[in-house]
Amino acid sequence: MTADNRILTITKRIVERSKPTREIYLDRVRSAAGKRVQRSVLGCANLAHGFAVCSPAGKEALAGDTVPNLGIITSYNDMLSAHQPFETYPALIRQAAEEAGGVAQVAGGVPAMCDGVTQGQPGMEMSLFSRDLIAMAAAIGLTHNMFDSTVYLGVCDKIVPGLTIAALTFGHLPAVFIPAGPMTSGLPNDEKGRIRQLYAEGKVGRAELLEAESKSYHGPGTCTFYGTANSNQMLMEIMGFHLPGASFINPGTPLRDALTKEAAKRALAITALGNEFTPAGEMIDERSIVNGVIGLHATGGSTNHTLHLLAMARAAGIKLTWEDISELSDVIPLLARVYPNGLADVNHFHAAGGMGFLISQLLKKGLLHDDVRTVFGHGMEAYAIDVKLGENGTVKREPIPEKSADPKVLAHIETPFQANGGLKMLTGNLGSSVIKISAVKAERHIIEAPAIVFHDQQEIQDAFKAGKLEKDFIAVVRFQGPKANGMPELHKLTPPLGVLQDRGFKVALVTDGRMSGASGKVPAAIHVTPEAVDGGAIAKIRDGDIIRLDAVAGTLEVLVDAAEFAGRELVEADLSANEFGLGRELFASFRRIAGPADQGASVFFN
């Protein structure tokens, strides 16, 4: 099945733009793959160090180069609910590897921080940078060159993008991603949001808020709303890094364990020692990246991926842009309603048909590249399935039903929730930015109001509590970009701005910071670039300037005389308080070399 002509046109443009860097990348991948892992010619001391703790059988197997060795990169820790299930995965993977005639070793661990814990705290200023640090940490684990294939254990916000960058940097090796799955449904997300707004208004106390949050985030697995973590899982499946149906099976279930073992065996089956060699760097191409963007639009996914997908693509020598993402948004209809873009959670999404139904619907209209390589083989048609537990603890895949089990959560391609995906690029005299409008009501897609300028999200909280924001306004929160303070998420702004919007005021947000996968009902132009600290026009805005945010026309403008605006001096801010504390001083070099948001806000790809 060929993709829609509009998708083909955008894909061809990406291919042409990427040719110089992609060709260099593929040459390096093929050169490294040609050398392969030849443990039998390693120095005896090198090899002895590499398998010192293996069993006698494992040592015998690794003494030559005919038995595949599987490297495990894990983000396990037992504080994060999404990553705690990974504690038991290495044992399962080693067992599966032995059954398949191979060996598996934990090659290394990577840090995994939780944006949910660090929201509004100093630690959030290291969150985005942790993505690139994770890629570097994974590289350290794999640099021992002991492995024929890899599996990556990761779920949440920056972890999967960082691991993907690592997998593509080691693109001569096959790479299979193994998820942990979402926690079971707790307090409905809309009820949690309601309690947050009541707390912001002072109508409930901390005890009531903590009770609601604890009922929402209550056990092992990812948070159940459709933020960056679950957008990651969608991406890994639709890009072919997961096995079909793997993304949204709950932790601690027999099917979850069966999928984990199957993934380990598949990773060993696609090494250069077999007949299905699938190096990650050749498997992932421009079509795979476009499929990821398509999945993001079709599900109303996280705004963070307007950063991460760019960086992930660049790791494979592919130059994806915001323009590509925005143009694909006009082609791809919204097929999922999952909080904050609806009332359902990801468990409801999976029960309605999940990734299998979504992929089947996109394929029906040619809105997905089917002619891609995946860790499962060739073509996305194999992913249009329903996954179940088979006999003897194996995985069974069946054809996906023709109808959604819940059309209010997962729509048929002929009756989408809206005609476009809702992630758009905005341009104008303030630079470039992105906006997610899938959860924003149509009457709020255009906001024109006076600016109120802030240099810290706490300033908005204080102004709200003091009753100074009871009016139409656009909040400009600047000096929140990667060079300024690491580009933290400003998710704490959602409750007060949501309250003001519910009171009937026209409100919006303009910022060079992030708002995360939880971007919701308040229109927000985010990732404004150039950022304020880098000479961006956002640093020229003054209180009272009229700003027009137009998500229909795709523009963001300050309505000030052009000559006057050009002549204004850039405002500076004292950022010294962001340079120290909770480890921020260790990331000074990252802040200095961080690239702009429209190139992925990376320390690697500028």
From TrEMBL:
Native species: Allorhizobium borbori
Protein known as: Phosphogluconate dehydratase
Every Dihydroxy-acid/6-phosphogluconate dehydratase C-terminal domain range: 408-601
InterPro entries: 6-phosphgluc_deHydtase, Dihydro-acid_dehy_C, DiOHA_6PGluconate_deHydtase_CS, ILV_EDD_C, ILV_EDD_N, IlvD/EDD_N
Example of a GO MF term: 4 iron, 4 sulfur cluster binding
Cofactor list: [4Fe-4S] cluster
Gene of this entry: edd
The protein's annotated pathway: Carbohydrate metabolism; Entner-Doudoroff pathway
Broad class of enzyme this protein falls into: lyase
